[in-house]
Design goal:
The chain is of the alpha/beta class and 159 residues long. Helix 5 packs parallel to helix 6. The protein has 7 helices and 5 strands. Helix 2 links the parallel strand 1 and strand 2. It is globular and about 50 Å long. It has a 5-stranded parallel sheet. The protein has a single domain, classed as Rossmann fold (3-Layer(aba) Sandwich), CATH 3.40.50.
């Protein structure tokens, strides 16, 4: 079920160009967002405040399994996309079938890229960082919200 914000990579690149053409900035972030929690929501809200719109790229189900293991994701990519799209701070959601986002960044050329505070400039994957640098992307790190994590939620459910 689409609620109008779930787009393709090509549509997202067009939206980015429309924002830029209007003198506006579209902020980008990405992740698994397997079980949406308050840490995610706060990060997304802070990311949105960095520009005029927010686009969220989520990993496909196959990619989440590669990144997090065979028991993940908890929620399907379609469900994760719909939940994110329902948030008022999110303007666009795209499902990406790639563990690394270098090609995605080369296609959409983010103006601003926001990542959670559990990352640093040095911990960004090299090909992703190179694609962001080539696009002239401003990279911003959002403060990490301590005490909130998907892994912690899953562990609590299993005990």
């Amino acid at each position: 079920m689409s609620i109008g914000k779930i787009v393709t990579i090509k549509e997202l690149a067009q939206a980015r160009d429309q924002f830029a053409g209007a003198g506006k900035r579209l902020v980008f972030t990405n992740g698994c967002f397997d079980i949406l929690h308050v840490g995610h929501v706060r990060c997304l809200q802070m990311a949105r405040e960095l520009g005029d719109g927010l686009a969220v790229a989520i990993n496909s189900d196959d990619d989440v399994r590669q990144l997090k293991g065979p028991t993940r994701p908890i929620h399907s990519e379609a469900d994760r996309a719909e939940v994110l799209a329902a948030l008022g701070c999110v303007d666009y959601v795209v499902i990406c079938d790639t563990v690394r986002f270098g090609e995605f960044f080369r296609t959409v050329r983010p103006q601003i890229y926001a990542k959670g505070g559990d990352y640093t400039p040095e911990s960004l994957e090299a090909s992703e960082r190179a694609a962001l640098d080539a696009a002239g992307t401003e990279i911003r790190f959002i403060p990490f919200v301590p005490g909130h994590s998907t892994s912690k939620i899953i562990a609590a459910c299993q005990s």
